[in-house]
Design a protein that fits this description.
- The protein is an alpha/beta fold.
- It has 2 domains: about 140 residues, Aspartate Aminotransferase, domain 1 (Alpha-Beta Complex), CATH 3.90.1150; about 240 residues, 3-Layer(aba) Sandwich (Aspartate Aminotransferase, domain 2).
- Helices cover about 40% and strands about 15% of the residues.
- The strands form 4 sheets. The protein has a 7-stranded mixed sheet with strand order 2-8-7-6-5-3-4, sandwiched between helices. The protein has a 4-stranded antiparallel sheet with strand order 9-10-15-14. A two-stranded parallel sheet has the order 1-13.
- The structure holds pyridoxal-5'-phosphate.
- Pyridoxal-5'-phosphate (PLP) binds next to helix 5.
């Protein structure tokens, strides 16, 4: 009977919790579970980056930093954005936060008023809708189609546009679908956003993990108009295997960055000091480990996608980026295996876990019940073993 906040009570628990908690309990009980649930690289942070973190600790760089981040890191981010993304920013356009999730939260808190709408494509990354709700906004969904590589179109955007539309979230490459928007598609979205004066929150956290020779393009790079409306989100977690260091960053118009910095100064203060020094090395130092990790991810993706498509009853598109595959299981709907009838992605995930000892994330967590999500941020050995088990259950 506690009188808790309406806002707090509106936030959903993670649908994936049941599955991941169960997988962990099984592992703890000594059961050999293969997990395809990972949302982080299975590699260690590269040595050169580790060393900089250690150096920062040893040199006493262990105190508060400026709330929006150290100037060395802001400069490194500007240099990176210039070299890799063809974007010109000054340190005053940058705020460093405690992970890209925190960057998105600060962004939404800075731009949303109660009732403002933010357009989100389904399947979405689990945190977008909840972050929008926490910030007082309303998520508005666009259902995408597998045939269109899970990408929304301009006509989809026109369909959901209202006087309350404040922003769209663009996540290319995408978690969970791995899709990448082409230059033409991005240009069309940019024109639409400029025409309607809508912010684009461009979550580019998976930009380095693109395959088949694809190239990531930042939507902010086309012209000044779209650059002014774009809030570029990125971070160290995925490209540099630094999920635990908690460093994300935002590049945007100074007016937006100022509000975000003020907010951050009263909530989390600065992001972790030594992580910031390590991140400077990450962005400016030797990039060969990123390329090496990417090579592994691409090999695993190829093997996983080909194997899934060889299993009767399952299918998938070969994703172009990130490290996830959305597996369509709808041919299995209504079938009963080992006493479990498959009526939903939760049922299928439950069957795979309980009977196959394989943990996957049910698509409902991303707003689309027709799929399960498999992560290939795990060893080839695990992938072979896990897919073998799935094949056995399904066929
Ligand atoms: N954006 C997307 C699409 C993600 O998948 C993730 C992590 O899973 C994040 C942002 C946040 O990453 P971090 O907060 O570790 O920087």
């Amino acid at each position: 009977d506690f009188k808790l906040s309406k806002k707090g009570l509106e936030i959903s628990p993670s649908v994936t919790l049941e599955i991941t908690a169960k997988a962990k309990a099984m592992k703890d009980a000594g059961i050999d579970v293969v997990s395809f649930g990972a949302g982080e690289p299975d590699f260690n942070t590269p040595k050169n980056i580790q060393k900089e973190g250690i150096r920062a600790i040893e040199e006493g760089l262990t105190r508060y930093t400026p709330a929006s981040g150290i100037v060395e890191l802001k400069k490194a981010i500007c240099e990176k954005l210039h070299k890799e993304n063809n974007l010109e920013y000054k340190p005053s356009n940058i705020i460093v936060s405690s992970g890209a999730k925190h960057s998105i939260y600060n962004t939404l808190m800075a731009i949303l008023n109660p009732g403002d709408e933010v357009i989100v494509a389904v399947p979405y990354w689990v945190s977008y809708p909840e972050l929008i709700k926490i910030s007082g906004g309303n998520p508005v969904y666009i259902e995408t189609k597998e045939e269109n590589d899970f990408k929304f179109t301009i006509s989809d955007l026109d369909h959901v546009l209202t006087h309350n539309t404040k922003a769209i979230i663009l996540n290319s490459p995408s978690n969970p679908t791995g899709s990448i928007y082409s230059e033409e598609e991005l240009k069309a979205i940019a024109d639409w956003a400029v025409k309607n004066n809508i912010f684009v929150i461009s979550d580019e956290i998976y930009e380095r993990l693109v395959y088949d020779g694809e190239k990531h393009i930042s939507i902010a790079s086309f012209n000044e108009d779209i650059k002014n409306l774009t809030i570029v989100i990125n971070g160290m977690s995925k490209a540099y295997a630094m999920t635990g260091w908690r460093i994300g960053y935002t590049a945007a118009h100074e007016d937006i960055i100022k509000v975000m910095s003020n907010l951050q100064s009263h909530t989390t203060s600065n992001p972790c000091s030594m992580s910031q020094y390590a991140s400077v090395e990450g962005l400016l130092g030797d990039q060969s480990s990123v390329e090496d990790m990417k090579k592994h991810f691409e090999e695993r993706r190829n093997y996983m996608a080909d194997t899934i498509n060889s299993i009767k009853g399952l299918s998938c598109r070969k994703p172009k980026g990130a490290f996830y595959i959305m597996v369509n299981y709808t041919q299995l709907l209504g079938k009963t295996v080992k006493g479990i009838t498959i009526n939903s992605s939760l049922d299928f995930a439950k069957l795979l876990l309980e009977e196959g000892k394989v943990a996957v994330i049910p698509g409902i967590a991303f707003g689309d019940d027709k799929y399960i999500r498999l992560s290939y941020a795990t060893s080839m050995e695990n992938i072979k073993k896990g897919l073998g088990r799935i094949k056995e259950i399904v066929e």
